[in-house]
Specification:
- With 116 residues, the chain is mostly beta strands.
- It has a single domain (27-108), classed as Jelly Rolls (Sandwich).
- 0% of the residues lie in helices and 45% in strands.
- It has strands at residues 13-15, 18-22, 35-41, 56-63, 65-70, 73-77, 82-85, 91-96, 101-108.
- The strands form 2 sheets. The chain has a 6-stranded antiparallel sheet with strand order 1-2-3-9-4-7, with no helix packed on it.
- It is globular.
């Protein structure tokens, strides 16, 4: 089990418009259903397929500026912004400006009836 993780311990994963550094993986997390990653978004367009998950997803902007899209609404985001995507909700991130957008991402379980 991994209680403390360091960026770069695992190989990065390439996604359309972003690189992901896994931290706590589903296989090694000490909390069932929770896993974390550090993503670097380098595209200024949303991915063709927005994310949709069976679990909840949270985001925290470490550096850079960009936009967060959730089910047809869009917010400008920057360092210190925290966002949530409830289970089953389409969502996406993209950078704005020249600098990449770096975001800490965490997934956590969804319980029936836990969304408002």
């Amino acid at each position: 089990m991994t209680y403390v993780a360091q960026a770069g311990e695992l190989d990065p994963i390439r996604h359309p418009g972003a690189d992901s550094l896994p931290l706590h993986t589903e296989e090694k997390t000490p909390v069932k259903g929770c896993y974390t990653m550090l993503n670097r978004f380098y595209e200024s367009e949303y991915p063709k397929n927005f994310g949709v998950h069976e679990d909840n997803e949270g985001f925290y902007v470490v550096s850079g500026k960009g936009y967060y899209w959730l089910e047809g609404r869009e917010w400008e985001i920057g360092p210190g912004s925290a966002m949530l995507a409830p289970a089953g909700q389409r969502h996406g991130l993209k950078k704005s400006g020249d600098a990449d957008l770096t975001v800490f991402i965490y997934h956590f379980p969804s319980a029936k009836g836990d969304h408002q």
